[in-house]
């Protein structure tokens, strides 16, 4: 539901002298029905923008098609989008691409399990043989209680997963960190409720990262019952940070103890230092070309106090 607000800000305000032929600025890829939803919200809120967006719907057999022609059925801020049908395996391959210093970055997508239609996206560099480095690959999942259906697409795309972004909606917090939460909910109840609502725990996120042999794991979509550590509230920071660290610990433990279902890529005897990280606003993850730099760098971690005057601190203060 945040897409309409994002578009209103990114596409600018419509003025009487704005050109009739709007420049296409934003391309959106998502499930069937997204095009219709945005049209309805824009119409009900009387939204008009200076530039245009397009919705490209990822369709499966039986999905309704929301047409883009004739032009009058589109919103005035909408450009024609593509209807992309999945292949025989149920995946959407090569749906988009962009340029990088190493060539095109290619986007693939596939369905993941949730109570509503939801999609996981794979961004990877082009395959290059020796002596070029192994291509980097990023996997970003939507809401899900299981993403295992994406495994064939993961294994068929080049490179290992450099970064997995996986949701972690709820978690059991032990009594040594929060007595009240532990007293009200057992680990079994937390997992049961997560599955009922189509979401994941840190344990499930870590298991997914282990099964796919991901190099980095960032946890997002953390439930509102776990408020982020606040720089403005020092007294609550220690408690909130402890909860985030516990969520990270659970995911990390599952990650490092779950065997991969993909062909082995790590040389025998190589030691991996893998640590899951809870996402936070303005956090960045540095992913160097394989074999050219340190294994990972997380900037602006949740609960860490950035150095005064640093670039991340400046961005944080400008946006609060």
Offer a quick outline of the entry.
Residues 287-320 are annotated as: Disordered. With 320 residues, this protein is of the alpha/beta class.
- Oligomer category: single chain
How do the strands of the widest beta sheet line up side by side? 5-6-7-8-9-10-11
Distance between the termini: 22 Å
The CATH class of the largest domain is: Alpha Beta
Number of domains: 2
Organism: Dentipellis fragilis
Region (Disordered): 287-320
Biased composition (Basic and acidic residues): 299-313
Protein name: Metallo-beta-lactamase domain-containing protein
Walkthrough of the structure:
The protein is of the alpha/beta class. It folds into two domains: 3-85, no CATH class; 92-318, Metallo-beta-lactamase, Chain A. The chain contains eight helices and 13 strands. The strands form three sheets. The protein has a seven-stranded mixed sheet with strand order 5-6-7-8-9-10-11, covered by helices on one side. Strands 1, 2, 3 and 4 form a four-stranded parallel sheet that branches. Strands 12-13 form a two-stranded antiparallel sheet. β10, α7 and β11 form a beta-alpha-beta unit. α6 (202-211) packs parallel to α7 (234-257). It is globular, with a radius of gyration of 21 Å.
What's the SSE blueprint?
Blueprint: H1 3-10, E1 24-31, H2 34-44, E2 52-59, E3 78-79, E4 83-85, E5 92-100, E6 103-112, E7 118-124, E8 137-141, H3 151-156, E9 163-167, H4 179-184, H5 187-196, H6 202-211, E10 217-220, H7 234-257, E11 277-278, E12 284-286, E13 297-299, H8 311-318
Helix pairs in contact: 6-7
């Amino acid at each position: 539901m945040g897409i309409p607000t994002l578009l209103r800000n990114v596409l600018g305000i419509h003025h009487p002298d704005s050109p009739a032929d709007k420049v296409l600025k934003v391309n959106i890829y998502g499930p069937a029905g997204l095009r219709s939803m945005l049209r309805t919200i824009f119409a009900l809120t009387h939204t008009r923008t200076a530039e245009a967006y397009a919705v490209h719907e990822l369709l499966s057999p039986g999905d309704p098609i929301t047409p883009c022609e004739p032009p009058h059925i589109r919103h005035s801020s909408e450009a024609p989008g593509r209807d992309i049908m999945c292949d025989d395996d149920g995946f959407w391959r090569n749906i988009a691409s962009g340029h990088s210093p190493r060539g095109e970055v290619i986007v693939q997508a596939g369905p993941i399990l949730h109570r509503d239609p939801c999609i996981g996206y794979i961004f990877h560099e082009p395959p290059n043989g020796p002596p070029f480095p192994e291509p980097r690959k990023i996997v970003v999942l939507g809401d899900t209680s299981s993403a295992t259906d994406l495994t064939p697409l993961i294994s068929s795309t080049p490179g290992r997963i450099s970064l997995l972004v996986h949701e972690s909606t709820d978690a059991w917090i032990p009594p040594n960190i929060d007595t009240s939460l532990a007293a009200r909910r057992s680990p079994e109840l937390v997992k049961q409720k997560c599955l009922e609502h189509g979401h994941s725990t840190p344990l499930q996120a870590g298991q997914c990262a282990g099964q796919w042999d991901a190099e980095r794991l960032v946890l997002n979509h953390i439930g509102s019952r776990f408020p982020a550590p606040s720089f403005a509230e020092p007294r609550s920071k220690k408690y909130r940070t402890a909860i985030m660290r516990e969520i990270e610990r659970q995911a990390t433990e599952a990650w490092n103890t779950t065997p991969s279902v993909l062909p082995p890529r790590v040389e025998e005897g190589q030691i991996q230092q893998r640590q899951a990280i809870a996402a936070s606003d303005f956090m960045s993850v540095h992913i160097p070309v394989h074999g050219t730099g340190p294994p990972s760098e997380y900037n602006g971690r949740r609960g860490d106090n950035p150095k005064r005057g640093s670039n991340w601190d400046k961005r944080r203060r400008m946006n609060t």
